[in-house]
Amino acid sequence: MAFPFITCKTVIKFCLLFLILISFLLSLSHGDEAANKQKPIDVPLKIGVPGRTSFQKFVKVDYSGNLDNSKFGGWCIDVFKEVLTKLPYSLLYEFIPLNGTYEDLVDCVYNKTFDAVVGDLTILANRTKYVEFTQPYAESGLVVVVPAQPEDQHGYS
């Protein structure tokens, strides 16, 4: 199996993401019908992509040549491109790698440097104050283990 982390729950989340992403992309071009009739969308969306990731199966940037769309790969990129094929219109976009932190990616969407981000970005409470997220579509399986009861001042439970 190529992706052992994909479970039935992950597939359901993926389907939800797929629907939400299509809704988002439709709203970008059809949000204001009058404005769209007057001015066609000919400027590509700037899609930020993490330039360095821990899990290159999700997002990978190939820096060996010219940074065009063919140099970006991974599961998240494949999902994005597949969603675009389902739209009833074409949507121009360009991937732009950012070799910063994930917080930097969020900041770039917030300050409108990027129109969106595609990648293995974790939804955190502080990030939701600045940008909106799709529903999660993958589970990492990573957890944090903490004591069920706090220790007293001497280190005993």
From TrEMBL:
Occurrences of domain Solute-binding protein family 3/N-terminal (ranges): 68-149
UniProt-listed Pfam families: SBP_bac_3
Protein name listed in UniProt: Solute-binding protein family 3/N-terminal domain-containing protein
Any coiled-coil regions, as ranges: none
Spans through the membrane: none
Organism (species): Quercus rubra
Keywords, in A-Z order: Signal
Gene3D superfamilies: Periplasmic binding protein-like II
Signal peptide positions (record): 1-31
Domain of life: Eukaryota
